[in-house]
């Protein structure tokens, strides 16, 4: 079948205030047997990025065990694209910090963060990573990793349940999906997400 090429006229940017012309072109192509999906490139890129977030796990205490539980068969975070964990910051999209960070660890964590490629994210899991936890008055403990690196999602708890960790990771997915990937404007305004409570209707079905 021969596809009739639509005539595309030049429209000044100021006058192009709606998608009527674009929808008309897409309709003509669909009638000619050509499948067309209309959407912004930002949406396509962010959809792919949000469903393939690779994490660098920086676990130092009991919250790391809960993160391991999220990866097991009962919760199975592979369904959401989180299954790939990296040992190299150059291959990771986010740092999953779970546990107490001491003053000696702080420069190492900052170095790992600096070695990651943009765009990069940080999730703070548990009371120790968020505020120092029960050790916050100690002379050798950092009172929250936000003093070292910018944090995108806070997941409180001591330790937080696997459902809370999974919910926090899904909130990061939502944040990535609405970012402006092209133009470099996505990291100018820093708005962290705080997981205060897991919704009652958030039920994780066993795999």
Automatic annotation (TrEMBL):
<keyword id="KW-0408">Iron</keyword>
<comment type="subunit">
    <text>NDH-1 is composed of 14 different subunits. Subunits NuoB, C, D, E, F, and G constitute the peripheral sector of the complex.</text>
</comment>
<feature type="binding site">
    <location>
        <position position="62"/>
    </location>
    <ligand>
        <name>[4Fe-4S] cluster</name>
    </ligand>
</feature>
<keyword id="KW-0520">NAD</keyword>
<dbReference type="GO" id="GO:0005886">
    <property type="term" value="C:plasma membrane"/>
</dbReference>
<keyword id="KW-1003">Cell membrane</keyword>
<dbReference type="GO" id="GO:0050136">
    <property type="term" value="F:NADH dehydrogenase (quinone) (non-electrogenic) activity"/>
</dbReference>
<dbReference type="GO" id="GO:0009060">
    <property type="term" value="P:aerobic respiration"/>
</dbReference>
<keyword id="KW-0874">Quinone</keyword>
<keyword id="KW-0411">Iron-sulfur</keyword>
<feature type="binding site">
    <location>
        <position position="158"/>
    </location>
    <ligand>
        <name>[4Fe-4S] cluster</name>
    </ligand>
</feature>
<dbReference type="GO" id="GO:0045271">
    <property type="term" value="C:respiratory chain complex I"/>
</dbReference>
<keyword id="KW-0472">Membrane</keyword>
<dbReference type="GO" id="GO:0048038">
    <property type="term" value="F:quinone binding"/>
</dbReference>
<comment type="function">
    <text>NDH-1 shuttles electrons from NADH, via FMN and iron-sulfur (Fe-S) centers, to quinones in the respiratory chain. The immediate electron acceptor for the enzyme in this species is believed to be a menaquinone. Couples the redox reaction to proton translocation (for every two electrons transferred, four hydrogen ions are translocated across the cytoplasmic membrane), and thus conserves the redox energy in a proton gradient.</text>
</comment>
<dbReference type="GO" id="GO:0051539">
    <property type="term" value="F:4 iron, 4 sulfur cluster binding"/>
</dbReference>
<keyword id="KW-0479">Metal-binding</keyword>
<comment type="similarity">
    <text>Belongs to the complex I 20 kDa subunit family.</text>
</comment>
<protein>
    <recommendedName>
        <fullName>NADH-quinone oxidoreductase subunit B</fullName>
        <ecNumber>7.1.1.-</ecNumber>
    </recommendedName>
</protein>
<feature type="binding site">
    <location>
        <position position="63"/>
    </location>
    <ligand>
        <name>[4Fe-4S] cluster</name>
    </ligand>
</feature>
<dbReference type="InterPro" id="IPR006137">
    <property type="entry name" value="NADH_UbQ_OxRdtase-like_20kDa"/>
</dbReference>
<dbReference type="GO" id="GO:0008137">
    <property type="term" value="F:NADH dehydrogenase (ubiquinone) activity"/>
</dbReference>
<dbReference type="Pfam" id="PF01058">
    <property type="entry name" value="Oxidored_q6"/>
</dbReference>
<keyword id="KW-0813">Transport</keyword>
<dbReference type="GO" id="GO:0015990">
    <property type="term" value="P:electron transport coupled proton transport"/>
</dbReference>
<feature type="domain" description="NADH:ubiquinone oxidoreductase-like 20kDa subunit">
    <location>
        <begin position="62"/>
        <end position="172"/>
    </location>
</feature>
<dbReference type="GO" id="GO:0005506">
    <property type="term" value="F:iron ion binding"/>
</dbReference>
<dbReference type="InterPro" id="IPR006138">
    <property type="entry name" value="NADH_UQ_OxRdtase_20Kd_su"/>
</dbReference>
<feature type="binding site">
    <location>
        <position position="128"/>
    </location>
    <ligand>
        <name>[4Fe-4S] cluster</name>
    </ligand>
</feature>
<keyword id="KW-1278">Translocase</keyword>
<keyword id="KW-0004">4Fe-4S</keyword>
């Amino acid at each position: 079948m021969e596809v009739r090429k639509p005539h595309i006229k030049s429209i000044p940017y100021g006058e192009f205030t709606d998608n009527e012309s674009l929808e008309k072109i897409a309709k003509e192509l669909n009638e000619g047997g050509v499948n067309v999906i209309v959407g912004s490139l930002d949406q396509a890129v962010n959809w792919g990025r949000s469903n393939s977030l690779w994490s660098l796990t920086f676990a130092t205490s009991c919250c790391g065990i809960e993160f391991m539980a999220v990866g097991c068969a009962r919760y199975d975070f592979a369904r959401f694209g989180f299954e790939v964990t990296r040992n190299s910051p150059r291959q990771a999209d986010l740092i999953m910090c779970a546990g107490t960070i001491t003053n000696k660890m702080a420069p190492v964590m900052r170095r790992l963060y600096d070695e990651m490629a943009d765009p990069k994210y940080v999730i703070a899991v548990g009371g120790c990573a968020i505020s120092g936890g029960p050790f916050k008055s100690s002379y050798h403990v950092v009172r929250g990793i936000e003093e070292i690196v910018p944090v995108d999602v806070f997941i409180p708890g001591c330790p937080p349940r696997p459902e809370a960790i999974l919910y926090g990771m899904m909130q990061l997915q939502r944040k990535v999906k609405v970012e402006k990937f092209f133009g470099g404007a996505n990291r100018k305004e820093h708005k962290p997400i705080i997981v205060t409570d897991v919704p009652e209707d958030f039920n994780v079905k066993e795999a």
